[in-house]
Structure prediction request, 94 residues.
Amino acid sequence: MKNLLWYLIAGTKGGETRGRIINLLKKTPSNANKLSENLKLDYKTIRHHLKILEKNNILEAINKGKYGAMYFLTKIMEENMEVFEQIWERFGKK
Prediction:
């Protein structure tokens, strides 16, 4: 998981956005529209990053495929939050 998080957050162009999404979902589950509003980013951009995070088992959706689907961090992501925090502290723009 450590290597995957390094890649997703520090090793790719969209890493900062994915880190910001993880930080928001760590505090409270949310849907794509709310994430878009909070991060002041285009809805389609948020959806793109949500798909990447979901594909890599970082988050999961309830009511997936429908408008208003709620996103949560997966159990494995919650268990590795310390690793994420270390990466984010070093490379994230807070």
User: Anything to note?
Assistant: The helical segments are 2-10, 15-27, 32-39, 43-55, 75-79, 81-91.
